[in-house]
C-alpha cells in the first residue's frame, strides 16, 4: 500500500516563502525533513527542484519526481554522488503519483512525500493521507507563497518543538479525517 504524505514548514498564516526561497532557516527542520524522506519517493515542482542547492540535486537517497508543464525541461545527466538517487520528470501531479505508485521499491508498503512548492501542495492536498508540518510561530507579511487550507485533517500530534534564534516552532503530524 502506498501512503501519500505532505511535508512542509509554514508560518502562522500558512506562509511558505517568498521568491522561491524559505523565509526562515531552522536546521532542525532540515534534519527532520531528511530523516523522514530518506529512502522514499519525493514529488516536487520544477521551481522547487531548481531552488535546491546544487549539492542536493537530486536529493540524496531518494527517488526525485519533478512535476513540470514545461516540455523543454530536462535535467542534465551527471554522475550522482549517491547511486540511490534518481530523477524522473512528469507533466502533472497525477502522473507523478501514478509513477510513484507503480515504482517497484523493495517494500510492500511505502510512503511518498509531496515536498512543494505551493502549487504542488495545492494540487496534492486532496491526495494526502498525512501532513508532517513544522509550524513556525511568526507572521511573514512579505510572503508570496502559501500552504493550502487543511481543515479536513484532524488528530494533530505534537512530536517536537524548539527555538532557533527568535523563532519558536513545533513539529506536528496530522491525519486526514475520513
Compact summary:
By secondary structure, the chain is of the alpha/beta class. The chain is 19% helix and 37% strand.
Walk me through what this model shows:
The chain has 178 residues and is an alpha/beta fold. It has one domain: Dihydrofolate Reductase, subunit A. It contains 4 helices and 11 strands, in the order E-E-E-H-E-H-E-E-H-E-H-E-E-E-E. An 8-stranded mixed beta sheet has the order 6-5-4-7-1-8-11-10, with helices on both faces. Strand 10 and strand 11 form a beta hairpin. The two termini are 17 Å apart. The model has no long low-confidence stretch (mean pLDDT 91).
Biggest sheet architecture? 8 strands, mixed
Class from secondary-structure proportions: alpha/beta
Q: What is the tally of beta strands? A: 11
Number of discrete helical segments:
4
Using the 3D structure, state the CATH architecture.
3-Layer(aba) Sandwich
Please outline the helices and strands:
Elements: E1 2-10, E2 15-18, E3 21-22, H1 27-37, E4 41-45, H2 46-51, E5 63-67, E6 86-90, H3 93-102, E7 110-114, H4 118-124, E8 130-136, E9 145-146, E10 153-164, E11 167-176
Parallel strand pairs: 1-7, 1-8, 4-5, 4-7, 5-6
Antiparallel strand pairs: 2-3, 2-9, 8-11, 10-11
What are the salient characteristics of this protein?
178 residues, three-stranded antiparallel beta sheet, Dihydrofolate Reductase, subunit A, eight-stranded mixed beta sheet, alpha/beta, 4 helices
